[in-house]
Amino acid sequence: MNTYIPPVDFGRRVLVLRHRRIAILLRWRSVVVCAVLAVAIAGTAVLALMTGSYALSPGQVLSALTGRETGIVHDIVVEWRLPRVTAAVVFGAALGVSGAVFQSLLRNPLADPGIIGFTQGSYTGALIVILVVNGTYVQLVGGALLGGMATAVAVYVLAYRRGVQGFRLIIVGIGVSAMLGSLNTWLILKADLDQAMSAAAWGAGSLNGVSWDQVVIGGACIAGLLLLAGMLGRPMRQMELGDDAAASQGVRVSPARLGLILVGVALTATVTAASGPIAFISLVAPQIGRRLARTAGITLAPAAFVGALLCLASDYLAQHVAPTPLPVGIITVVLGGGYLGYLLFTEARRRL
Fold first, then answer.
1. Nearest to 219 by CA among 34, 92, 49, 130
2. Local structure of residue 163 (DSSP, 8 states)
3. Averaged pLDDT of the chain
4. 7: phi then psi, degrees, rounded to nearest 5
């Protein structure tokens, strides 16, 4: 009698793309998850372009995007609404990848650039440019980048005790973030009324008034940083196993860690310079992406797509749910705060 023996599945199904000496390994579930998220992002983007005081149909939106529509419809879609939608997608993806980098490096789901002070440092540098120097957008990006980098160095030095442990760095980062928050409040209180009001509104994280210039400059910087993050993705995953294990596989641990920290801080600083500190997306997106893709560790692509969808959906809610438009950061704080409470609760139960 013949007995049927089912095939043995030795692991997750993967797709390998090869070109000469370059090989890219893609997990099928991650590809499917990213594709579904991309469809959701596209649908939400069309909805955001349709909705407003001047309502449009899907056909009008698509015609304006393809250049077949002119006049007021073209101006509303392409000149007024599309920069904000594009900024939400690009900035959300940048925040998702930044959070994924730090959570992977520190091997802690609470390792968020906002919690460990890097976002506050970028905000401090940007505030100095706005309130003291009264500089241009390029200077604002530079100030935010320098502020974030200086904060990263300070947190790293203060947390260093024969090496850096993830939990100690998070605790030190929370303290530095609190001090920088007080400094930012003092800078706003000492500024002129008009500057203080605009800085306070911008500090809540807002996409109001985002122009194509900011989208193009910030998007170009973010595209380059995302490319660098992708190139460092393999060493990042290997370092999750520990420095010794990564070094045994040929990873130059110290340069790779430094490069990942620089990329993560630069992504956060670029977004902060353009829109202010948008909280909690970098905390939430990597964990949701990991659960959807069912990967063992943090992966960059799902985190980027989840971050883009979260930022875009939050901005849509901020514009159309409340009687008056709100900064997107208020919505992300509400959503992210609930998720942070859930994460702390589940982590506490796991340790019992």
1. 92
2. S
3. 84
4. -65, 145
| Separation CA 34–CA 9 (nearest Å) | 23
pTM: 0.86
Backbone phi, psi, residue 309, to 5° = -65, -40
Burial 216-231 (b: 16+ CB within 10 A, else e): ebbbebbeebbeebee
What does the alpha-carbon distance between residue 233 and residue 300 come to, in Å, rounded to a whole number?
A: 7
Nearby residues of 158 by Cβ (< 8 Å), 6 or more positions away: 172, 176
**Interatomic CA distance for residues 141 and 236, integer angstroms:** 26
Question: Positive or negative CA dihedral for 272, 275, 280, 282?
Answer: negative
H/E run at residue 19: strand 14-19
Residue-wise pLDDT tens digits, 193-233: 888 887 877 788 888 878 888 899 889 999 999 999 988 88
Between 28-50 and 58-65, two packed helices, what is the crossing angle to 10 degrees? Answer: 100
Name which residue leads in pLDDT, 28 or 128: 128
Q: Closest Cα to residue 119, out of 307, 238, 278?
A: 278
Q: Which tokens hold the place of 304?
A: 């980027």
| Contact predicate 36/42, CB 8 Å | no
Quote the distance between the C-alpha of residue 186 and its chain's center.
Answer: 27
Q: What residues have CB less than 8 Å from 208, skipping those under 6 apart?
A: 201, 325, 327
